[in-house]
């Protein structure tokens, strides 16, 4: 069934942020950092506004940004893409995902989704006429299994949508899982739509491995990234799409009629930012890792059961050991009575089979994290 958009609920992020504002809670719900983003990148955008980058830029993106994106992925992920035919700039990863689903799916095509999944996926798949087939991932490790993939893929599967690293579980899929998925994509002749917006936010020696780099995936992967996550500028909404020319032709048409272009001043600033030296990206990761460790050890000291966080700026707790089996009710109490906003992970499942995991965003200043910990004290 194709739900009418107006009947869909307001996203849990918006609801929780509004509750946090109304109650004066520390907001560790919606994922956005306290950090204002690199000053030089913001200055570049301001300069570009003042000095005249304010008319429609080329539809596929500023050439300098498309080149910077190609160079960035060659440097960090060993991908060789042609900026002229294999890179497109979109208004955030969200537009890229919506456009890709519009371009790739014919009504009735099946789309494999891994739940928990980012909240935009399912409504967009359904609106494009896709039929979702779910693979349910479960705590604590949220790994892919051959049996689960075999149950989800069919001859009608057209697209599989993978988010790696995975929001909300903070999972970085190991090479073995990616290889398994790639094998299914090849066997069933499926396009992989890969949401890799968290690719730079990985910890503990992990290095992001793009699905596109696996054997046989170069021609059948649409890779999506976002400057919002790379530079802690979530409101900028500058996204990148990488795809082989045959796929890109359809994606470009979707972009043409969805937004056509993306603000040129922000594009110019992102082009500058992507060329920053390795130290910037390593430093960002190190800062997030420090915040993760501070918050994780604080939660553990208070007696909470903390799940692993290998990537993204999210950390989850298992509330079952507290005798809690309804994450929505738990988060509601947390924000109203204890003054901390968090996200119930069941909101990321289509059928809520898992209701005992709660997500916190730790991309915050130390004093914000410490204030949240003080309020959580005595709950576990
Ligand atoms: N996909 C995932 C998995 C995300 O976490 C987010 C943002 N939180 C997005 C897409 C949206 O990215 P953008 O803001 O660039 O549209
Ligand atoms: N990606 C952010 C999160 O997961 C929120 C984005 C949004 O508010 N739509 O918290």
TrEMBL record:
Sorted alphabetically, the keyword list is: Aminotransferase, Pyridoxal phosphate, Transferase
- Annotated ranges, domain Aminotransferase class I/classII large: 26-376
Q: Which GO terms describe its molecular function?
A: transaminase activity
- Which coenzymes or cofactors are required? pyridoxal 5'-phosphate
Is this entry keyworded Transferase?
yes
Highest taxon of the lineage: Bacteria
Read off the InterPro entries from this record. Aminotransferase_I/II_large, Kynurenine-oxoglutarate_AT, PyrdxlP-dep_Trfase, PyrdxlP-dep_Trfase_major, PyrdxlP-dep_Trfase_small
Protein's name in the database: 8-amino-7-oxononanoate synthase
């Amino acid at each position: 069934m194709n739900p009418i958009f107006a009947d869909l609920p307001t996203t849990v992020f918006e609801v929780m942020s509004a509750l946090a504002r109304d109650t004066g809670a520390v907001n560790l719900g919606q994922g956005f950092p306290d950090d204002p983003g690199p000053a030089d990148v913001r200055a570049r955008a301001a300069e570009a506004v003042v000095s005249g980058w304010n008319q429609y830029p080329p539809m596929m993106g500023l050439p300098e940004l498309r080149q910077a994106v190609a160079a960035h992925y060659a440097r960090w992920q060993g991908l060789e893409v042609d900026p002229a035919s294999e890179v497109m700039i979109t208004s955030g990863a969200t537009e890229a995902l919506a456009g890709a689903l519009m371009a790739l799916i014919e009504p009735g095509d099946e789309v494999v989704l891994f739940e928990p999944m980012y909240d935009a996926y399912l409504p967009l798949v359904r609106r494009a006429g896709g039929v979702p087939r779910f693979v349910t991932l479960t705590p604590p490790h949220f790994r892919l299994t051959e049996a689960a993939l075999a149950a989800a893929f069919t001859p009608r599967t057209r697209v599989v949508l993978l988010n790696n690293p995975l929001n909300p579980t903070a999972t970085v899929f190991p090479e073995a899982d990616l290889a398994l998925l790639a094998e299914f994509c090849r066997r069933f002749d499926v396009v992989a739509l890969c949401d890799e917006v968290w690719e730079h936010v990985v910890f503990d020696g992990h290095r992001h491995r793009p699905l596109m780099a696996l054997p046989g995936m170069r021609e059948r992967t649409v890779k999506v990234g976002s400057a919002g996550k790379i530079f802690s500028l979530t409101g900028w909404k500058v996204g990148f799409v990488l795809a082989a020319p045959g796929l890109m032709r359809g994606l470009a048409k979707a972009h043409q009629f969805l937004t056509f272009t993306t603000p040129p001043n922000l594009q110019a600033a992102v082009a500058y930012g992507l060329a920053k030296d390795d130290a910037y990206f390593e430093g960002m990761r190190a800062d997030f890792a420090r915040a993760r460790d501070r918050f994780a050890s604080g939660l553990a000291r208070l007696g909470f059961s903390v799940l692993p966080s290998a990537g993204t700026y999210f950390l989850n707790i298992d509330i079952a050991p507290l005798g809690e089996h309804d994450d929505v009710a738990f988060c509601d109490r947390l924000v109203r009575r204890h003054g901390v906003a968090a996200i119930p992970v069941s909101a990321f499942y289509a059928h809520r089979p898992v209701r005992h995991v709660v997500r916190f965003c730790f991309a915050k200043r130390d004093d914000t994290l410490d204030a949240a910990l003080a309020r959580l004290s005595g709950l576990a």
